[in-house]
Design goal:
By secondary structure, the chain is of the alpha+beta class. The chain contains 21 helices and 17 strands. The chain has helices spanning 10-18, 22-35, 84-92, 98-106, 111-131, 173-196, 199-215, 218-236, 243-261, 323-330, 344-349, 394-402, 410-418, 465-473, 550-553, 557-569, 571-574, 576-579, 586-592, 596-610, 625-649; strands spanning 41-43, 46-52, 55-59, 73-75, 278-294, 299-308, 313-321, 351-359, 372-376, 421-431, 434-439, 451-454, 479-486, 493-500, 519-520, 540-541, 665-666. A hairpin with a 6-residue loop joins strand 13 and strand 14. The protein has a five-stranded antiparallel β-sheet.
Length: 667
Amino acid sequence: MNAELPPVAPDVVAAAVESLTSRLRKKLDAAIEGYAALPVGTEGAVRRVRCGEDAEVVLTPGPSGTVTDAGQAVCSCLLAPRCLHRAAVLGACPVADAETLVETETGAATDADADADNANANANANANANANANAGNAVAEGAVPVSSESVVPPAEGDPSSGRAESEPSPPTEAQIAAARGLWTAAAAVLGAGVPAAGAVPQAELLRAAHTARLAGLHRAEAAALRVVRGLRGARARHDGHRLADLVAALSELLLTSGLLARAEPDGSLLGTARRAYRPGGSLRVRGVCREPVLSATGYGGVVTHVVGDDGRWFSVADVKPGGVARARGAGTATVMIGSGGLDHAQLARGGLLIAGATLSPEGRLGAGKGVRATPVAGLPWASGPLGALFARPLEEIVAERLGGAPGVDPERAEQRARELVGCDLVVAGTADGQLIAREIRAGRPDDEGVLIRLAPANGHPDLAHTANFRQLAARPGLRLRVIGRLEPERAATLRPLAVAPVPDTVATLRLPAGWGGHADLGYDRLEGAHFPPSEELPAVTALTEPPPDPLAEAPLWRLRRLVEVAVSGGRRAAAEPARDGDRGGAGAALRRGGFRTAADLATGLAAEADRRSRDVFGRTGEADPDAYARAWLAAAVYLTGAERALIQATWRPRPATDARPTAEPVR
């Protein structure tokens, strides 16, 4: 993709590809790769791409900045509009978000809100990269085995009937047909794998996504668009591409479309079409902390987290091109809400009384023309809505945030998992270069708390995270009140954003009065004067090695490798274990580790990938894409649930007698 080109609606791209002849379709992938590297001419909102001596493609996006109509993409060659130039340039454009298309149809939001939404989108993308969050995982409760029969493919026939009137109504015939189209397109992409999933299979998936949007299947449409973006990133070998994200998006698409295709009466499977911002009325929010934002695409800025009087979380972002210098400077930039009387440093330690607030579904505060804001005093972390945040043990919070079942909306699950948490910790020391802390819980000895790995929210050397971690690691026994974000893919890992003193103890931080009772780890630099003398720190037991990581020690990586190879290499790559008799020993290793269901699913997936039908003359026929997709989906859903169950287990407290061997106490 070329970031200088405007986003394009999925149906426009699909129509351009469908209009090509079979001969031109064979050249499309190479043409997209070549045209994506061409310079882009700019004339206001118009974009021009010179594709040859007599061919120039002109893109004229609408007021939303998105090409939503076929007439907005014009080529000067004689074959236009059914030409390779136009289809290739459209294929090099980014795919428009579903929310952008909804705004185009229903009326765009204010310019200020749109800018804030784009800024927060970059902030969320950066935070996901920092945390290695898997945006599309659909999790299973515990490690419940999932058989291949539990995921039903699209089937012909009438939807099931006889449901009680109180139950949710099943999807309509149009929605079922759209879901079947999505399943078929997704199964074709899975069978082809990344190398063969070029522009033509992507166009078929985009056409199915457009049909799903018209039918009201917004959640499935969003998953399909994530799959297309993941395929493009994988084929272009983008730095920010993660194969795990593509696997999760494809799993979500197959699971959602498969359940809808069998007329599952679950309203959450449909999803919702929502505008980026909606009226929020009057709000009074109190600052909590600032988080620097630094993306791989050159954006930098800050996100300030605030909480309402009712305990709801909100955020205010200021993210623009500029890199790390922009991220450092934005920490004291003026907040563009209302009268602009506060900067982000003051907001993180103060508050705002907002009239006419606008909110995104993720809790981002907009800066529309009708928004008015008045500064108010802040509150310490120990009082107000934040006081209850530190009363719950992490075990309960993790079970609530990371628990769930297959079919849960991944966007809502990710938003819930990324919501900030609070806890009291005592620094236990370092092991293998990791900072380890132990949770402090009322009524339990300190040495029985959960051992937690603390990881910097951003490791850039020009930000304050790493330097502050060195200061904390040098003081075992220090007690901290921490607000941070869970790491859902790693064993008992927390990414702190800010720290504060623990009440009623001397072995804690001693922060300046001007810091408002807490330190933002990305901006405020902790120094020796901010810590108690070493003699006031209690003795702790030295760590010789980090806490156990059952996910790293389990042989589940063998099943994950097969599931990911099936996506990156296609059906042929997934069939290799069946062809060589599992000489790698993946199935045996899984069984020895007690993961018998995982071994059965891996064996079944490899066997299904290698299965071919034969006619009466013994000739090999076409493989069944539905059966293969079912086998892969069953393995992917089970894998996600099993990994999440192992991660949740690391957040449960263990008695001191069950800990790893340790050395003598240190100060």
